[in-house]
Amino acid sequence: MSPLQAAMREQRVSIALRLINHPDIDINYLGEGPFRRTPLQCAVDKGNMELVNIVLDHGVDVNGPPATVAGATALQLAAIHGFLLIAQKLINKNVDVNAAEGAAEHGRIDMLQFLLGSGASIEGDEGERQYQRAVELAKKNGHNAAAKLLMSAKS
């Protein structure tokens, strides 16, 4: 874990501000091993808009990849937690809006409506796969209203 990731996880704004411009700090660093997060993903996971703004203002990649184990993109984390203002901020920064699986898996109807209204794709090869996976996850976790919302968006 980089010092910037640690500052984000611990929500240390003053430390993050000192580190963000350091030449040895990669603001898009994902880290090693499972369960890792980029600095942006750490900030989003904590729901800390101040930290999110700090990394966004310094040119972070809003579409940074998720970890292979228990990973999630920044938008997926915002959707899972229901952080609507953070999700809107990410969309304003041209994040890939296709993050419905996490929202569906956690029964976040509010976020599903927001993502669908923001252009999340349920058509085409990639959109269809994501749509099917989102419906499956919603049903598997007993979030029938989320599954119905997704199915109604398709018809």
From TrEMBL:
SMART domains per the UniProt record, alphabetical: ANK (SM00248)
Keyword match Repeat: yes
Repeat as UniProt keyword: yes
Superkingdom of the source species: Eukaryota
ANK repeats: 35-67, 70-102
Key words of the record: ANK repeat, Repeat
Stored PROSITE patterns: ANK_REP_REGION (PS50297), ANK_REPEAT (PS50088)
InterPro entries per the UniProt record, alphabetical: Ankyrin_rpt, Ankyrin_rpt-contain_sf, Multifunctional_ANK_Repeat
Signal peptide residues on this chain, from the entry's feature table: none
Entry-linked Pfam families: Ank_2 (PF12796)
Name of the protein in its database record: Ankyrin
Organism classification: Eukaryota, Fungi, Dikarya, Ascomycota, Pezizomycotina
